Amino acid sequence: MGEMKPLKAKVSITLDEDIIVELKQLAEKEDRSLSQFINRILKGYLKSEENYQK
What we know:
It is built from 2 helices and no strands.
């Protein structure tokens, strides 16, 4: 069968308004929701940190 998607959890964070505007614009360029876009950014950051610490 197909691969199972990881579970998602809702979180609430506070961001500067200018950051939100910029993130929304970048997400729209990639045809992603803001949530999908932030999730992708965070995954990339964690992966790079993991590689850096090795």
